[in-house]
Amino acid sequence: MKKIFSLLMICALFLITGCGGGSDNAAGKLSVMLGSNVVSLDSAKCTDPASFEVIADCIDGLIQLDADGKPIPAIAESFDVSADGKTYTFHLRDAKWSNGDPVTADDFVFAWRRHCQESDKYAYIMGNTVACVKNADAVTKGDDPTTLGVSAPDPKTFVVELDAPVSFFPSLMAFPTFYPINEKFFNGLDAGTYGTSPETFLSNGAFVLSDYLPGAANIQLKKNDGYWNAANVKLDEWQYQVVSSSDNALTAFKNGTLNVVDIGGSQIESVKSDTALVKDLQNIPSGSLYFISFNQDPKNHHAGALSNVNLRLAISNAIDRESLAANFVANGAKATYTAIPIHFAPNAKTGKYFAENQQQFAEYVGFNVDKARDYLNKAKAELGKDSFELEFIYANDSGNTVVKVAQAIKSQVEENLPGVVLNLQPMPKAEYLDRLTSDSFDLAINSWVPDYDDPMTFFTLWTTSGSEICEHWSNAAYDKIIADCTTGDLAADYDARWQAMYEAEKILLENAVIAPLYTGANATLIGSNVSGIEFHVAGVNRIFKSVTVK
Amino acid sequence: MTKYVAKRILMSVLTLLLITFVLFVLIRIMPGNPFPVERMTADMILQKRAELGLDKPILEQFVNYMSMLLSGSFGNGTSLYNGAPIKPIMLKCLETSFRIGVLSILFGTAVGLTIGITAALNRGKFLDGLCTVVSILGVCIPSYVFMIFLQYFLSYKIPLFPYFFDPSQFLNSSIMPSLSLSLFSISAVARFTRNEMIEVMNSDYVKLAEAKGLYGFELMRRHVLRNALIPVVTVIAPLVVDLLTGAMVIEKIYGINGVGSLMVNAIAGDGVDYNYVLALGIVFSALYIGVMLVLDILYGIIDPRISLAKEAG
Amino acid sequence: MYTPKDDDFDFLTDRDLSVDENFAAQGYWKGVAVHFVRNRLAVAGALIVCLVIVFAVLAPIVSPYSYDEIVSIQTTDGRQVIAKNLEPQLGAPAQVDDASANFADKTFVFGTDELGRDLWTRTWQGARVSLIIAFVAIFIDMVIGTSYGLVSGYFGGRVDNVMQRFIEIESSVPTLVIISILAIFMEKGIGLVIASLLLTEWIGMSKIARAECLKLKEREYVLASRTLGAGSFHIIFKQILPNTIGPIITQVMFSIPVAIFTEAFLSFVGVGIVLPQCSLGSLIEAGFNNITVLPYQILPPITVLALLMLGFNLVGDGFREALAPKLEDM
Q1: Which of A247, A424, A425 lies nearest to residue C290, judging by beta carbons?
Q2: From the candidates B222, B236, B244, B270, which should be mutated to test the interface with A, based on the most A CB atoms within 10 A?
């Protein structure tokens, strides 16, 4: 017994000596909530909004976006476009990495080539559906990376050749996968260690990491004094805190531990009844689209009932999206009747959002129980079946909201469509993605966050060769429009391209390939002493460069 | 005795090897890909599998893995944290979880034993009833709900402790999570101690010792506690492993970068990271086997009636 | 031959002496029952458990709402209003605010949840599911775990070695891995939950049984049995098992909430019971998301769980003492 106790004593001693001193958060320090862990700080490997945000705090790309989402210079002081819109020449300013090295065009060449070779989920963004960088798709498939259409004629000039003109190319440069990586520094590290600690990560942007570990719940940043625009950065030290529960976030905000938090439905109601707090509440549109994917594979285990267009239309018309958004999501999300979310992709000429007119496709997407039942009866007649038992999957870890939405949809569809039964199947995200790619589901709640401010970020999801998470649907006319708009004839003609995309959207919705549900939003509490956070719907969602804390 | 211990250790190593193989096979049949598959085409997925060597026969994969393990490395992740080497990340998380775990075991055992012994000595009286209710409530309230209560009262209402885990003030920010984690062990230890004590106090040899004039502390120490503690140790041992290997929900609520959340991230992230799950599984097993080994040997020390030599034969 | 008479002996004093009474021989189980009923706390515990079971069986049937029904009404302008997040109310509440005005005439004993479902119905429905899961899983665990531990502990040596190594292997595979793999072969739902509890929970039980057995097998009465020629099977299950009942019942009491929470954890990661089904664990989990703003949502399931546990523990204690009456002599 004595031995055990002395062992315990040693342990206790180890604990006490193991703790150091520390101070509470100083008043006026910015503490921002992150909804999920940062997956990776390697711009070629990361796939999630949280990672994009932290990378953008630390690294500047060629171009950055201003508060209104307009491209403005960052590392590139200026750029020239060739007459055919296929060659961009960026002129870099004298910027420095945080180890003192100058930022050169070669850093971009290195990062872009590496990105094509290494990236999994985001390899497509260099390729011919988005940026159209010359030979990007071939390099991704294993070609010699030096054939990629990028070059550095001198350290301050970076030239990109494209396969087709891309109207939104400058604003695309603000996306983290186009950011530079210091080649010399990278090659000096052990394989795979880049971006796993403050020591293995270099900044050329507004902030440097002062404390970070992979998967850390707390990330500390401080001002980068060598930043080219350091004079305009007001924050000296600030931090991110990963908080998973909305209830917890609200208490931490009231407590003063956090100054910027996102909260969910029930917490919003409580804040709205609190006059002291309600003035800090802001509704930030997020540009993410939540939709139902239908699996149209005729070989799937329910004998392909969903390959019948009328059944899909019936389900889509049996969902009360207004009630869904107002009652169950309840964080400012908006019911959506188009394949493109609201508040997203403004037309460069008219300034109107692409999906401004929500009634445009009311014929196919809406809430009309009678119409839904007509479709259902047609489907029953065509399929010769009276009842449909369908498997409805969703990723459980995408949060409490999706869980509520799934249950509400089940309740609405089953009530409005006699004979249709939806079996809810929540599952971990890895399994969910696996089921989506292997087509082993009937319906799935899906969501997509736009990577860049153009409707194409959504439309390419549904092409035949698009992503594997797509819904086993193939339509030659649709594919042709998308190909024309990305690399074909329409790429250079802004208005015609815009019109063609509406055509594509019509094909998508009249076939009920998806049933759009709602455009996501964030209900954000921002401390009254914090100002200057820039919110964007696409790419990097929050920019903290010009934040001031009183 | 020495021979027995040596034999047990050898057995443990063999078991660990077997476990590694079983885990290796099981993890490969888990649903989900070892990398995030959104926006990847079927070709890319195949290419990626080949890159990771997942297209080779499983035995060959296992031999490769074992040779890597023997060279002292756990390899690199497949999807989590952009394929960084696993060892440093895992060690960092283990350290954090260990410290909190040890603290909560200390709490749990000390408080649990006190409650249990008090209850047994006051059997049938008010104190006994109070202890019973406390220990029952302890099991009913999930530790994460208790954690939220603590967070709400001890750092929101009365700001005694930091609201989120802060590694720079370790002890201060470990108190609430380890308190909530120890809730279950307090209850378990208290209940088992009480029942065992009562049984032992009632046994003939204690009555004999009492009749011989032994009483008070000496009687407790030499006869009652010694015998009552065997099953209690059995209860504590697996709890130790549980506590050391982290608590996912509490880690999440309080923002602790520990092994519990590492495991969940590895399994339920965008992709299943085979290598992380495997590495963590092996470490957890090694811990478990180690604790059981110590436990078996401890049995012999606490209870001389269990003769290890005979068992070994 | 002298026959003794009553007045042969006189009491020295007028002291009222109690006279030994003779009891008719009782059956073992009758004795247990008598002991149990005499224990007031145990009876109270049994009452609580019965009450919860009665509510769990009847309340969802009697309730005007079904457990998965989203209570809503259509307003005159055609909007759908949902009775979500209503505090507990009985008929017409005293002060009617705007949000709940439409449902003023309705009774929600425990209030409604975030989706506008009646928490009273859901709590008892959840208690039903949790009771089924806990009972089935724990009963089988007890049978498997106890036999395994007793056999392993009794035979010792090589048998014990092999059996313990098997346990080490089994308990080394992380629960999440076991469950994800099980989920490939089984339909999600109660069956899967029970199966995964079976695979993980019996180990604790067997550890306790083994430790007890190690302690008991060296005892005199076991030795005596063996000397008299009793078989191993007889000794394990007739001699040792009844004496291990105390710690095993205690372990069962701990396994029940663990089973209920494991189930909640499984729903949390997406492999538990299938929504909109609910269990006490998943209700606690759901209430936990709003614990500071809507505390009334987590109170009913936690209270029911605590009552159940209190009841089970009291009953368990009663049984333990009734089965091993020597404890009563203290």
Answers
A1: A247
A2: B270
Q: Do C302 and B192 touch (CB under 8 A)?
A: no
Q: How far apart are CA B68 and CA A90, in angstroms?
A: 45
Here the ipTM equals: 0.78
**A302 and A159 within one domain:** no
CA dihedral A460, A466, A467, A469 (to 10 degrees): 90
Chain A residues with CB under 8 Å of C79 CB are 322-323
pLDDT tens for residues C210-224? 888 887 887 788 888
- Which pLDDT score, from 0 to 100, does residue A181 have? 93
At A317, which amino acid appears? N
Give the structural domain span for B273.
86-312
Question: Rounded distance, CA B51 to CA B32, Å?
Answer: 17
Chains near A with 3+ CB pairs less than 8 A apart are B, C
pLDDT of residue C95: 52
What backbone phi and psi angles, to 5 degrees, belong to B302? Answer: -70, -45
C291 at the B interface (CB within 8 A)?
A: yes
Task: Say whether A216 and B42 touch across the interface (CB within 8 A).
Answer: no
Question: Is there a contact between C171 and B288 if contact means CB atoms under 8 Å apart?
Answer: yes
The one-letter code for the residue type at A6 is: S
Amino acid C192: pLDDT: 83
Residue C262: closest CA among C279, C243, C238, C249: C279
Q: Does B47 touch chain A (CB under 8 A)?
A: yes
Q: Which of A518-532, B3-17, B134-148, C306-320 has the highest mean pLDDT?
A: A518-532
Residues B51-79 pLDDT 10s = 777 888 888 888 888 888 888 888 777 77
Q: b vs e for A227-243, b when ≥16 Cβ sit within 10 Å of the residue's Cβ?
A: bbbeeebbbeebbbbbb
How far, in Å, CA of A235 to CA of A206, rounded?
Answer: 9
First and final C-alpha spacing in chain A: 58
Q: Are residues A355 and A468 in the same domain?
A: yes
**Cross-chain Cβ contact B169/A437 below 8 Å:** no
The 3-state DSSP class for residue B222 equals helix
- Residue range C44-60+122-329, CATH number: 1.10.3720.10
Q: Do B81 and A39 touch (CB under 8 A)?
A: yes
d(CA B88, CA B230): 37
Task: Tell me which of A11 and B159 has the higher pLDDT.
Answer: B159
Q: C290–A425: do the CB atoms touch at under 8 Å?
A: no
Q: Which residue of C has its CA nearest to A426?
A: C270
Question: Does the beta carbon of C157 lie under 8 angstroms from any beta carbon of chain B?
Answer: yes
Closest to B81 (Cβ–Cβ): which among A215, A397, A428? A215
**Is residue B66 in some structural domain?**
no
The answer to whether residue A351 sits within a structural domain is yes
In sequence order, the 6+-apart residues with CB closer than 8 A to the CB of C89 are C100, C103, C104, C106, C107, C108, C111
The CATH 1.10.3720.10 portion of chain C extends over 44-60+122-329
Q: Which domain holds residue A433?
A: 285-522
What mean pLDDT, rounded, does chain A reach? 85
Closest chain C residue to the Cα of B303, Cα to Cα: C215
Q: How far is B186 from chain C (nearest CA, A)?
A: 12
- Choose among C178, C218, C309: nearest Cβ to B305: C218
**CATH number for the domain harbouring residue A459:** 3.10.105.10
pLDDT < 50 positions in chain A: 1-26
pLDDT tens sequence across C270-282: 677 777 788 888 8
CA distance B4 to chain C (A): 11
Residue B298 lies in a domain: yes
More confident residue, C16 or C96: C16
B-chain residues within 8 Å CB-CB of A437?
A: 33, 37, 40, 45
- Quote the pLDDT of residue A375: 93
Is the pLDDT at C185 greater than 60? The verdict is yes
